[in-house]
Amino acid sequence: MGALSHLRVLDLSRVLAGPWAGQILADLGAEVIKVERPGNGDDTRAWGPPFLKDAYGENTSEAAYYLSANRNKQSVTIDFTRPEGQQLVRELAAKSDILIENFKVGGLAAYGLDYESLKAINPKLIYCSITGFGQTGPYAKRAGYDFMIQGLGGLMSLTGRPEGDEGAGPVKVGVALTDILTGLYSTVAILAALAHRDQGGGGQHIDMALLDVQVACLANQAMNYLTTGVAPKRLGNAHPNIVPYQDFPTADGDFILTVGNDGQFRKFAQVAGQPQWADDPRFATNKLRVANRAVLIPLIRQATVFKTTAEWVAQLEQAGVPCGPINDLAQMFADPQVQARGLAIELPHALAGMVPQVASPIRLSETPVEYRNAPPLLGEHTLEVLQRVLGLDAGVVAGFKASGVL
């Protein structure tokens, strides 16, 4: 049994940040009931191509995007714009430990599904709201999407080629990183609220905002600004505080060199056939290398082009200098370490036979992650959940379905 197998989560969220948190909780054993709109469901079900293919190579209705964040859940369709649907959600919330939602601020109050309304029927409910800008402030009622938040939240001012370089300009991260990080922070907040409840406290409302998370995750770059008053600029793949710590060309491509201290730099200089660099008064310490990066980086680039990527990686690994190739996803999933860690898995799927998944990175010795079921089809578990959790008769459920509530 998973570490959270004693918990029930009502997941009213769509797209990525909320479903990501729900999937983490589900992987850890929680029962996660995903409530979706009848007919369409989670927006990401239609966010394709690509779509999952069936045994005949034909597209199914399941978009790859949706499949990335909804494993181990049960799908129930409920139209809670209707009073009957609202009552069903209230009854499910009364029997749940956690609720996750990412509607606009105040959006669920009109249906009596906001925190204060549900707290009245379940004081121990942990209610996690995820929005673009939080429940307060001048932007609270605005919709927020990952790409927009990456720009507004400062990340894109740091990502991309530096001014003056060919192709210079702001670039977003290649995955919806702010959504993912918000899902992770939301999971941490939920677990903290559970700990408080387990110590005798009640439930509580969690206010998570994509913008807050994006600003918090600027980490050292935020502190670089706050301690100097100077906004950091785009450096491409270079690091603002460490040199050399970036990509370099090789005889057959590129590789990444991440020198974290002066001892590693000395070892790198030896492998590069330039031992004098380690004692050069311009490069002997990281502080000096940062100050003289404009001199050092071209020298390193001139040296790295004489060996292949594989040669650099092999020789530097033997010397204890962190480095690595720049893989595409095919190369990454073929990497022996990725395979050894079992990061690609498959689960049985009703339409495709099997569906590929990316494994959870969480490794627990006593309560390991369990992969119980593939991301569900829309409404796949409606009858089963309403019968098991709410005790509804099959005929009542059929009546709801006939009337369009389910």
Automatic annotation (TrEMBL):
Single GO MF descriptor: transferase activity
Keywords: Transferase
Domain of life: Bacteria
Keyword RNA-binding set for record: no
Entries under InterPro entries matching the protein: CoA-transferase_III_domain, CoA-Trfase_fam_III
Protein name, as recorded: CoA transferase
Organism in which the protein naturally occurs: Pseudomonas farris
